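Q&A log
Question type: sequence-to-structure
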Amino acid sequence: MWWKSYIPDFITIIIQCFSVMEMIDTNKVFITGYSAGGDGIYHVASMMADLLAGAAMMAGHPNQADCYNLRNIAFSVQAGDHDHAYDRANWAKVYIQKIQ
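Response status: OK
Response body:
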């Protein structure tokens, strides 16, 4: 449900709660997602790049996600070379080229 408008605020609140409890270093927040969660990482990482140290997408599809804000965070794209469902392997290669 990464496309829901409340998701960035929800993740921000989670980060703030852990920070207040001194359970995390806010300069080292990483998020990951697999499959549909990977789809979300493409979008959420770009929308929240100012709060993240990095993000990793596994087996997701970019769905025209913008990569402009990913310049200053670590961002990993992981898709199997034979992952042909939804043409994810090819889209991962295209997205990596956009990032570079």
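Response note: DSSP finds three helices and three strands in the chain.
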